[in-house]
Amino acid sequence: MPAAAPPRLSCEWSSRTRDVFQKDFKKQLHSEEVLDHPLKPLVVTMSESRIIKLRTVGGSTTSSTRSSTPTPTQSSLYSMDPLGAALEGSDPLSQLASQQKIDPLSAMAADSWVEPIEGKRGKEKITSTTVVDDGMRETWASRKAGILCKFTTSEKLSIVTSFLSGGEKVIVKAQGSVVDKVRTRLEQLDDFEEGSVRQMLDLSQQEYMGRIEQLNSELVQAWHQDQRVKALKIAIQCSKLLVDTSVIQFYPSKFVLITDILDIFGKLVYERLRTKSDYYAPGSKFPTCLPENFTPDMVPESAKETCRNWFYKIASIRELVPRLYVEMAILKSYSFLTSGEFSQALMRLTRMVRGIGDPLVSVYARCYLCRVGLSINSSDRAYLRENFYDFLAMYNQLFSASVRMDLVLQKVDLSTYLTLYTPALDYILQSVAHDATEKTLAEILDRCKRKGNSALLFNTIMAAFKPAYVAARATQFVELLTCCDEEGFPKYLLFRTLGLCLSLADPPAEHCLQILNDVWKVVSKLTNPAQYVSCAEVWAQYVSKHLATREVNTFLGDIIKHMSVGRAYENHYASLQTVMERVLAHANDFETLLTMDKFLPMLDIFQKESVKVEVCKSIMSHYTKTYQFQTTNDPVITNALMFICRVMHDSVNALTVEDEKRQIGNLICSFVKRVDFARDFEQQLSFYVEARASFTNLDVIHALLVQSVNRLAVDTRCIVKGHHTRKTASFVHACAAYCYITIPSINSVLMRLELYLLSGQVALLNQCLGQADACLKAALSLIPDVPKTMEVDGKQRTSEPYIVSYICNFLSTLLIVPDSPEQGVLYLTRGLLNVIQTYSWDQQSTGRSTVYLHVLDMLAAAAQETYPYHIDMVDSNDVLYGSDPKFITELNRMCSVVVEEVLSHLKYLGTSELYQKQSSLALELLIRIAVKADLSKPDLATLALNLWNLAQRHGCMDLKLAVRITEYMKKRFSSSNDDVTFGTKTTLQIR
Fold first, then answer.
1. What is the C-alpha separation between 662 and 666, in angstroms, rounded?
2. Nearest to 297, CA basis, from 344, 346, 335
3. What is the pTM of this model?
4. What's the rounded Cα separation, in Å, for the pair 604 and 619?
5. What pLDDT is recorded for position 59?
6. What gap in Å lies between CA 218 and CA 207, rounded to an integer?
7. What's the pLDDT score for residue 882?
8. What values do phi and psi take at 978, rounded to 5?
9. Taking a C-beta distance cutoff of 8 angstroms, is the pair 991, 906 a contact?
10. Lowest mean pLDDT among 162-176, 245-259, 683-697
């Protein structure tokens, strides 16, 4: 009878217990003759007819009516049972290497060689084809996202586990004989959980990643439920997944997902050992957890024994890859045993990896070992170089006949296959190169030169070491790369990587031109536009930074030549845009750049409007930043910039967003400001006329042009000191006419109002009275069109405060505008009063009354014999009328009308019970009457007293202000009318 099954093992069991258990078990074994090897598992397969066939691997087949789910393929069995595979006479690792399925997306990785994925312009992430600033090594965390994004697949994936529900195939372990039961017990750490092992098939990449995340959650949950064996088994199962290369293009992403789980497992083991270590601080009687920087002598013996047990359990795992990965995951736990164990363990594991036959699996195992070693801060870094040299030792295997045969069977080309090595190899070599000297670079470079087909190695070296080291040996690298065999690794990628290095560090100045010539002898022969432009976008920065304008012009010409063949530029706008930006950013002389005969033709190859506009915006941005305080009048530069600005302007349409209009408008305005013909004002005006014709869609440009022409007229007046000749008078009249014609094309009413008033003031300054009248009349006609609300700080506000402010400014100009003999007295003022009366004001506000009060101020000033200010060479009404009684009578009549309007509004405010506003308005009117009116007239005196009573009726007046006004009014009344006593309770008929 077979012996009873042993009790379930706990996670922490000693090696002595295991040995005793094995000896006792062997004594109970008996022998019997069998037809098949007992270690060959039974596999249950479901056929289409639902008839179940039981068969042994390599044996006969029998039928059964038992129901089950489909079973894995034979290759899957080998991956789970290495002994069974060994019995077939083949190496299990070789079997794994031949399991790779045909990947329909294999062309995607190959295409990445032909047309690399473009990142952000100006910021190249470091991969096998890019370079990073070696001042700080790129961490693995920063690499993971890039690996998961790049190495994707649409191939169906599978996962073998016993800890997830669902799936399509089940492996049933036959335990009918005693030998089978013994084997099950002895391999408990190697096998899956008792019962069935489920293989999930036809998983998409997203589903596969979700299953991996479930395994991660299962591991953490099992650990927190004190199921250490289950957690360890999950870690082992996850490690076994790294043996499978059936979907080879997904392997780097699979490595990232699985090692994340192993990292969590290693951290859980480490923290458990640390919490189990009771530490008594010197002088303390209470135990505490070990500190972060503990030493092995602080760890109690019980915790050390537990730590050893973990390593013993892991050492009993029979398969090499899971044993390596799980031990590497808990490698940090060696710190509980001895401080000198890390170096020996790292070197031991480095040599153990040599047993992995598949070079792809091997290089990623070395990558994980290097990452773990760096995380434990081991001072000994010899293992890093040893791992890289071990990779060099098996490097030729990547190009062996067996690998090529497998690639042919799987329809995967060699270049696609080599891309899978770059994440791991880059990390290994960058770990070696961190803080390394040039001597290390020379040593590694010398070893790599001895290898055949060393393009992948050279590319990794340039990506790993400091760009300064590579730049110092630039000529040597050019020679090496030129002689490289292009099979499997395209040569253009090598020169692209070299260009990235030289963009971060400067080569010797005397070699700059020679380096470019040698490189471009190879690059210019490329017939694939994608390969050519990927090199050109990198070397554009080198050319513009280190070489003269002539070389830049030749460089752009070569790009135009290559990209114009078959209109190849249509597929590479992003790369060509990067070329332009780098040339612009590093141009030594921007104006010389604009005059090159290949610059505008380079711009013309951007046939797509949106891209061309972006390039033009980039050109103008660089120009305005470079020549922020400089001007130009060079016709070639002006015409070139005018063409660029016209391209931006013509892209504006009804669908263009406001922010885009603002950006384009600001750039064009910057250009207009920088064109200066000095004292050649006629040429300057001609330029403004051309600009107006070219830029018709943007208000901000027209506003700038109007202001610029007004400034031109003012500068002309300053030069002639106000005494215009016939020529200058004609010129300023032309300027005024330009402004009057241009302003109506502006859509914004508010902008037109401001510009009409400004242009009228400038025309008046230059004695252009007819143009001034025309501008002021146009402004008056626009006031009714002002919208009732306007945006202020992102919020809609009423426009009345703006109208009040504008009319006050307008009134200050009207005071000095002379009347036209054909229009009558104060015809512009009368027109303004008509506009104020017809404008739709808010009745509950004091906006209209405030305007009327300012009109009273202006009329009072107009009645003076001499105005407070004048314009030279312009006779205002004080000179024209000389205080003529008829003129004064007209002013009084207009004042009466205005006062009546104010009194009417006062009555409305009282009726609406807006006493605060009524009191304030009454006080304002009282002050003007008291200061500017003739109080000797009884009606005005009575009006003043009634306004005073109204202002203080509701207690809204400030006490100090009331006292001052009282004193002032007493003086006025006492000097002007003895019959009127201040304070009389005369009531104005206003409620």
1. 6
2. 335
3. 0.69
4. 14
5. 37
6. 16
7. 80
8. -75, -15
9. no
10. 162-176
